[in-house]
Amino acid sequence: MNQKMLAPHPKGAVPHRGYSAPGMEKAYTKEDLQQDEDHRDALRKIVDCKVRNNSLRQKTIKFADSAKETYEVGSEENKVQYNIWLPEDILPGFRTFSTNLYWELHKTSMRILDAIIMALGLSESEGEYVRSLHSGHGNQLRFSHYPPVPIERLDEEILTRLPAHTDWSTFILLFQDTAGGLEFEDRSSKDAFLPAVPDGDKLYLNVGDMLMRLSNSKTRVISVIMTAGAVSLTCIDYFPSATHRVAVPQGLQSGKDQMTSARYSIPYFVLPDDDAVIFPQASCVGPSGQAQYERTILVDYAAYMSKWQYENS
């Protein structure tokens, strides 16, 4: 832990870089931010917050300690979200490896973005606009570790891994180990989740808030899977932001002294640049002319969504 703290995440949301120890980062949803002032005051007071959507429906907020640690990396040219590196002698080659991986994944993400633009049927000018928002300098590479924890404490919500939420990026590419636990909401069944089964040949992708807004989406699903370098795209009209969580892997039994396995994952968040203006593209609005979302600037949306992320950390 002492060596990890040589690259500490600051006590604030910007820059969102460096090492975050367990319990440092708060997690909450857009719905949480829209709650009344009593709920907001409760959020401000906690040390670490993991809010469950079903609890909010019951007007009761439950908090649990976080059971993960992370390390965030970005573009070396981003002077606002600047990197916070470990000394080279602590982890030789890590900086070079992370930077190279970051830009290789940007290349991959732009291929996927081209496929999404095609699936949406955007005009040539709209496609060029959407591409222009994604220089790669606003992206984020995260190294995540979920240590083993007692399943009983997760069941009792004393601890949590990661509650159900959406991300406010365009989309996310995810590498994961074989431990399991990642789940996506089943939109055909209320409050049901489907496991993202670990597979060494699969790169999972989940859609974020920015793509939902660009595509004027509300209720439909998209999935993209890369297998052995080939892109497989299944599109059903729209691109809603994907609700997902990290839970107890299916098949593990609850009980005294039962533990989860350690879990490691590497999500790559594909984000528009800070000054990007995000709004539904005309081709996605349709004949009715009904845009579901107002224009927003990425940096303003991010500030709103992250305002309690590291408060009181």
- Give the C-alpha Rg: 19 Å
- Terminal CA distance: 16 Å
The number of E-state strands comes to 16
Helix segment tally:
9
**Mean pLDDT, nearest integer?**
82
Strand proportion:
15-25%
Shape: globular
Sheet having the most strands: 8 strands, antiparallel
Which structural class do the helices and strands define?
A: alpha+beta
Detail the poorly predicted runs: 43-63, 233-237
Strand line-up in the sheet with most strands: 1-3-4-14-7-10-11-12
Element-level helix/strand string:
EHHHEEHHEHEEEEEEHEEEEEHEH
The quaternary structure here is single chain
The helix content, as a percent range, equals 10-25%
Please sum up the structure shown.
The chain contains nine helices and 16 strands.
Could you explain how this protein is built, in words?
With 313 residues, the chain is of the alpha+beta class. Helices cover 25% and strands 22% of the residues. The strands form 4 sheets. Strands 1-3-4-14-7-10-11-12 form an 8-stranded antiparallel β-sheet. It starts with 17 loop residues before the first strand and ends in an 8-residue tail after the last helix. Mean pLDDT is 82; it is low at 43-63 and 233-237.
What secondary-structure arrangement, pairings included, does this model have?
Elements (H helix, E strand, L loop, with lengths): L17 E3 L9 H4 L3 H9 L7 H5 L7 E2 L2 E5 L20 H27 L3 H9 L7 E7 L4 H5 L3 E2 L1 E4 L5 E6 L5 E4 L7 E3 L6 E6 L1 H6 L7 E6 L2 E6 L8 E3 L16 E8 L6 E2 L3 H4 L10 E2 H8 L8
Parallel strand pairs: 2-5
Antiparallel strand pairs: 1-3, 3-4, 4-14, 6-13, 7-10, 7-14, 8-9, 8-13, 10-11, 11-12, 15-16
